[in-house]
């Protein structure tokens, strides 16, 4: 275990990233617990409203992200200061992404259906950072051998092809697959070759004169949504709390 830890985390300089991820997840979970207690009127926690102005936790989150980022830039990739910067940055990210929906809509939608976007973006962020910690690099570069990495043409071709897969998946209305596919090319390829979502730019352009393709896309999208949307919503509500409206 010690050898694995040194070879995969310490030696490649990934310890700050791991500290940032851990502090990010812990901050998000603690924040959601506190806000749910406030919502239920339990415990000693209350909203911070100096002068009648509700201070959302995205505000200290931004401050901590800026502080942690500048501390990290001032130091190197290793050392105690870098670890502190990573923890401060992770805490800030946890506070900011917990209110991602508020920033997106410029409105207090924390306990609404729109507010579930915050939980979704947190889950996606954790997944992507975990992939990086696991050694995945954007556009499949991690799959190249040392000899292939020295061949610039091979690297450029690999990046271009995998980037194209991710873009096609995105245009087909499969945003989550496209984002994950940036790090796992097979996922992007899967999204690129499957039928597009019925209201995606791809469907509007290429299925316009193909009624059978449009009908198949609608059927497949409805089937997918029935199968997975309810499960995804239950997971999001379990993590972040059910919306009130």
UniProtKB/TrEMBL annotation:
Keyword Membrane: yes
Swiss-Prot/TrEMBL keywords: Membrane, Transmembrane, Transmembrane helix
Keyword Transmembrane helix (UniProt): yes
Regions crossing the membrane: 15-34, 54-73, 80-101, 121-141, 153-171, 177-196
Name this polypeptide is given: Integral membrane protein
Organism: Streptomyces lydicamycinicus
């Amino acid at each position: 275990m010690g050898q694995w830890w040194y070879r995969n985390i310490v030696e490649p300089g990934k310890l700050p990233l791991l500290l940032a991820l851990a502090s990010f997840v812990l901050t998000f979970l603690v924040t959601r617990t506190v806000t749910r207690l406030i919502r239920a009127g339990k415990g000693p926690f209350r909203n911070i409203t100096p002068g009648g102005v509700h201070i959302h936790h995205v505000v200290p989150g931004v401050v901590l992200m800026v502080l942690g980022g500048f501390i990290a830039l001032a130091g190197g990739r290793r050392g105690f200061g870098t670890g502190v910067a990573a923890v401060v940055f992770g805490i800030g990210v946890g506070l900011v992404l917990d209110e991602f929906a508020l920033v997106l809509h410029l409105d207090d939608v924390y306990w609404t259906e729109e507010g579930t976007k915050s939980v979704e973006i947190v889950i996606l962020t954790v997944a992507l950072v975990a992939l990086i910690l696991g050694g995945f690099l954007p556009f499949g570069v991690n799959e190249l051998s040392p000899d292939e990495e020295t061949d610039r043409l091979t690297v450029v071709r690999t990046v271009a092809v995998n980037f194209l897969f991710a873009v096609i998946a995105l245009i087909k209305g499969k945003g989550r697959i496209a984002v994950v596919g940036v790090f796992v090319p097979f996922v992007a390829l899967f999204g690129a070759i499957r039928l597009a979502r019925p209201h995606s730019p791809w469907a509007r352009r290429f299925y316009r004169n193909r009624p059978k393709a449009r009908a198949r896309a609608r059927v497949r999208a409805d089937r997918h949504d029935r199968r997975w949307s309810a499960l995804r919503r239950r997971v999001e509500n379990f993590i972040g709390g059910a919306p009130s409206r």
